[in-house]
Write a structure and sequence with these properties.
With 244 residues, this protein is an alpha/beta fold. The strands form two sheets. Strands 6-7-8-3-9-10 form a six-stranded mixed beta sheet, with helices on both faces. The radius of gyration is 18 Å and the shape is globular.
Amino acid sequence: MIEVDGLTVVYGRGEASVPAVAGLSMDVDTYELVSVVGPSGCGKSTLLFVLDGLLKPTAGRVRVHGEEVRGVRRDVALILQDAGLLPWKTVRQNAELALRLQGRKESADKVLADLGLAGFEKRFPSELSEGMKRRVGIARALALQPRVMLMDEPTANLDSITREHIQNLLLGLWWEMGFTGVLVTHDMEEAVFLGKRIFVLSARPARVVEVIENPGMGEPGYRGTPEFAAQVAHLRGVLGGNGA
């Protein structure tokens, strides 16, 4: 479980300070996958960085599985928007990077094969399509066998076919691995497709203004149902009224 209680994050000091998050509270149940949406620059990525232990809160408390987050955890993985691949490292080296940083010797070859990247292990990022780069980023996270997966716009700037493929892949991995997941996205259809609940944030400084229950998430064919379309329309209305 993830518990966020009164989270406040302020960048800088004095007159130059910028409040990114103010008094934000939310919870995510164990094995639940939720979406977080809100206006551009409202603090969504800041929230993920705090959950990952990369950023220290100015105030408030954050717990993962009952333990206060005081730094980067071995059981939490973060997928960055641009995959964050190092251009001078191969696919295998990029996929195993987080493992090596933790001093672990496991191989990522099985995860790469599961993601359709077998045969590309010795390729460099410049030799991959954008969709394949994103899959390498996902492989790097999965190689850690995380209990919590944090995703910062993992399908941003992809074409519609590749975006849906990655979304289906993430949903299947969630069903298979049973991780707790937090997805930050600007894509309303993606938020509804991948979020059992959808947390809507205000403009900066971020706070939760609405939580949308989404019981159809994960059901076969949900993307093509009237219920899905209605949820997307509702979310669009909420965000429109929220200044997005």
